[in-house]
Amino acid sequence: MKKKIILAIESSCDETAAAVVVNGREVLSNVISSQIDIHTKFGGVVPEVASRKHIEAINIVVSQALEEAGVTLDDIDAVGVTYGPGLVGALLVGLQYAKGLAYSLNVPLIGVNHIEGHICANFIQHKDLKPPFVCLVVSGGHTFIVHMKDYGEFEIIGETRDDAAGEAFDKVARAIGLGYPGGPKIDKISKQGNENAMKFPKANFHDNSLDFSFSGVKSAVLNYINKMNMTGEEINTADVAASFQKAVVDVLTENVIKTCTTRDVHKIAIAGGVASNSKLRESLTEAGKKRGIEVLFPAPILCTDNAAMIGSAAYFELLKENVAPLDINAKPNLRL
Ligand code: KG4
Ligand code: ZN
Predict the structure, then answer these.
(1) Which domains are seen in the chain, by residue range?
(2) Is the ipTM of this complex over 0.95?
(3) Which of 36, 39, 274 for mutating ligand 1's site (highest number of atoms within 8 Å of CB)?
């Protein structure tokens, strides 16, 4: 079969991204324009600002992706684009741009689920990886344990009932004065802290479910900070960060390993921004080693929001002839 060159676009949150990907695995270019500096001023992503910044950046980012890949629009076989979940105004910028391109080039438009994109980052990193495997998707907006049975075929085994893992990292970081985005900062400062200094709670559900809850641990940290502030005692930020991180990583590791053992799966792939976390990588690798389970991670650049992962997911959807109509709408609450 002739190779398929996909131009992919991602604009679901605060990164405007475009990439050129061949056959779902080979990345010719992966351009990301981050809006992080502007949102940092507000302590988090401001949706209206995000949409405006996407509009300013998208043309430049797509042109750069084509140039870096050494291709022209005439070489493109399909346009892949994230249509959900995400911020509706942000999604619409990428989606409308992609529709215009697909229509004018007369090539298929492929609508991609952002969460599926995160999972597919692993196909780029690990060229021989094939389903089935268990995937832990942990980002600023999502926390899922997914059994990926085949390409594009998912069973959700567990998900968060409140905050996403990355959201908890960001909120705790803000509370202990580390700023936004909190995940990488907690990861870094935790290396100097004692992770057993405080015991923050892990949520366990009594219904045997492998769901998560991170609002309890987040509240426990906030209560601890308030108490220390009231009594005037000094807060050891590194200890708080490390103890919080341990509580989150322990429950993520436990539930993912449980999923593998109960379903007899011997491969785990991690995805999403929190997959960059060094403690999570270490903990899962160690737990996997003890049980003969292989644990795979994408490089950090493929963990965070990017369009290469969207190009990979689009390829597998294209193979299934899952082509989107040109009136496809953005779906802010799209599920896997
Ligand atoms: O996947 P992503 O870039 O965007 C979403 O789709 O949400 O994930 C961003 C999230 C943020 O919450 C950020 O704090 C978190 O990933 N993150 C981390 C680390 N790097 C990024 N969390 C923990 N440790 C890290 N090293
Ligand atoms: Zn994401």
Answers:
(1) 5-120+303-319 (3.30.420.40), 130-300 (3.30.420.40)
(2) yes
(3) 274
